[in-house]
Write a structure and sequence with these properties.
four-stranded antiparallel beta sheet, mainly beta, ten-stranded mixed beta sheet
């Protein structure tokens, strides 16, 4: 059968829950609607992350009516629907200490709701029209409010390999949602084959490798409850997935850029070009 797309997910609000879809359109900055909104500190515009505010994971966003509406829901806080404002008040915002704004503030109602959910004064912002931000890596590409790359790709084989190690050490396996992938691949022969894919054609979209996905503390967060639930999977990943080239951070999955936009769907065959260490890999010339 080869390699196919098992799952597609976009994350409308950075740090919040994802939306699973059967088909998605990939544009320059990734899957449509992916990380076009971001929760920020109400005073200085610093982005909110599950690293410091794990409760974000339990906020369920839904984009409606061609991106014109956004609905947020969280247990114990009900549901709030807002009309997306593409031309509202510009607000300075930053990611990892780097200004990426101004972004468009989405008003007091959603700000008050998020502030109550997170227990700290927050605002919701949206990328402005004409937003232009570069990624980095082997193929930098363009990005919206993602950390640094447009699309996250993880294979089921990689998760299965990780969970086998966790279970062998007496731990409890973790679900795929801990890694917040946009594209989950099925059919890889061994774990971490996604690391070697330099070009991927899926549907009418063409993607290119940027970098292995470096992992922080977010995989420790239970994506259903919004609470920390470590030490797995980070403890086990640290035993075999450290990256000396990146200050010994741990990696899991790959980050890719969009070379050509298009439509991709669950079940699509993945046509991959395989390279290792910058040279053609004779074991897998093309699949």
């Amino acid at each position: 059968m080869g390699i196919t797309v098992q799952k597609l997910t976009y994350y409308p609000v950075k740090g919040c829950a994802g939306t699973d879809v059967m088909s998605a359109v990939a544009g320059d900055t990734g899957l449509e609607h992916d990380r076009t909104f971001m929760v920020v500190d109400a005073v200085d515009g610093t982005f909110r992350s599950q690293r410091t505010h794990p409760a974000l994971a339990a906020v369920l966003p839904r984009v409606g009516e061609g991106g014109r509406t956004l609905t947020l829901r969280a247990d114990g806080f009900g549901e709030l629907a807002v009309d997306v404002d593409p031309e509202g008040e510009p607000r300075p915002v930053s990611l990892f200490g780097t200004p990426v704004g101004p972004a468009i503030d989405q008003g007091d109602a959603v700000a008050d709701w998020l502030s109550e959910v997170l227990g700290v004064k927050s605002r919701l912002v949206r990328v402005r029209d004409g937003f232009d931000r570069d990624g980095w890596g082997e193929t930098p590409g363009k990005i919206a409010f993602a950390d640094a790359h447009a699309v996250a790709v993880v294979s089921q084989a990689s998760l299965d390999g990780l969970n086998a190690r966790i279970e062998a050490a007496g731990g409890t396996p973790v679900p795929m949602d801990r890694f917040r992938a946009n594209i989950v691949l099925d059919g890889c022969a061994v774990p971490h084959e996604e690391d070697l894919m330099r070009r991927l054609e899926i549907g009418t979209a063409r993607l290119a490798h940027s970098v292995r996905a470096m992992r922080c503390s977010v995989p420790l967060v239970d994506q259903v409850t919004g609470r920390r639930a470590g030490p797995e999977p980070v403890r086990t990943l640290a035993t075999y997935r450290r990256e000396p080239a990146y200050d010994n951070k741990i990696s899991f999955g790959a980050k890719v850029a969009v070379l050509r936009g298009g439509t991709l769907s669950v079940g699509d065959t993945v046509r991959a070009e395989w390279y290792e260490n910058g040279a053609p890999d004779p074991r897998r010339p093309v699949s």
